[in-house]
Amino acid sequence: MNRSVRVSPSRAYHHPVPATGSYQGGSSFLRWWPRALPLVALLILEVGWNHSVQWATLLVVAAVAHGRFLPCSFTVTDDGVWMRFPFGQRRFLAKEAVTIRLDVVGAVALVGPRRRIGYPLMDRILYEPGRTSLLYTAFSSFGYHVTAG
Question: What is the pLDDT of residues 85-135, one digit of tens each?
């Protein structure tokens, strides 16, 4: 599976190249927002408003939850879905272990035995017409189990 991809005559990069291609989606807002929340919490602590400790704690907890459960980018391949989270974590969901539920604003990768809770796969943060059909085509062309929301 490892193939050499020649970019220029002087350089050759060795890495796995998917034979069938992939679909990449993501949101830059979801990448920088959880990193900004702790900075805002520090600013609130510095200013010293009433209940600033509680507000700062809430913002840090929101940043941690956001960084743990909302991927900022994802790649759909023939083997599964690769997700990248804002603080650098990466997670792979095998195609056989995931069901994709398509909604108006994006897709949700449902995992687990009852498949009710999953990871939202946001291709943009705001609604954009035509994105649902693009996501449906991407997931169905790779053979995922896709349901409507």
Answer: 999 999 999 999 999 998 877 889 998 777 778 899 987 777 777 778 888
Q: Is there a domain that residue 81 lies in?
A: yes
For residue 4, what pLDDT is reported?
34
Q: Helix 28-47 crosses helix 52-69 at what angle (to 10 degrees)?
A: 160
CATH code for position 76: 2.30.29
State the total domains in the chain: 1
Task: Please report the DSSP string for 119-144 in residue order.
Answer: EEE-SSSS--TTHHHHHHHHHHHTT-
**Per the domain annotation, does 5 fall within a domain?**
no
Task: Name the residue type at position 82.
Answer: W
62 found inside a domain: yes
Structural domain boundaries enclosing 113: 22-148
Apex CA 79: angle with CA 73 and CA 85, to 5°?
A: 20
pTM of the model: 0.76
- The count of other CB atoms within 10 Å of the CB of residue 32 is 12
Q: What is the pLDDT of residues 1-57, one digit of tens each?
A: 433 333 334 333 333 434 457 888 888 888 899 999 999 999 999 998 888 999 999
